[in-house]
Amino acid sequence: PEGQGKEIYVALKPIGNHYVAGDLSTTAPASGRYLRGRVQGGWPNRVECGIEAYFVQEGEGRRGRPGFDL
Q1: How many angstroms separate the Cα of 30 from the Cα of each of 19, 23, 34, 40?
Q2: Cβ 61 vs Cβ 10: under 8 Å
Q3: How far apart are CA 43 and CA 32, in angstroms?
Q4: Which terminus of the chain, N or C, has fewer Cβ atoms within 10 Å?
Q5: Residue-wise pLDDT tens for the chain (70 aa)?
């Protein structure tokens, strides 16, 4: 499929205490938080960023772990 495997960046927008997906780009944002992923299944159907299967029940995670504090 078109775009398969292409690197893509997903800007993250703060909404209250959480972040949601914002703009998509083929270049990293100059500032702010973002996820880097790859197009899977053809553009623009699906982008995988490597965190799709990660879940921690609220109140069960540990703060201060590298890479887990936003």
Answers
A1: 18, 13, 10, 25
A2: no
A3: 24
A4: C
A5: 567 888 999 999 999 888 888 998 999 999 999 999 988 876 567 888 877 666 666 776 666 555 555 4
Tokens of 45: 């159907």
Whole-angstrom distance, CA of residue 7 vs CA of residue 37: 6
For the chain, what is the HEC assignment?
Answer: CCCCCCEEEEEEEEECCEEEEEEEECCCCCCCCEEEEEECCCCCCCEECCCCCCCCCCCCCCCCCCCCCC
Spatial distance between the Cα atoms of 36 and 25, rounded to a whole number of angstroms: 10
pTM: 0.64
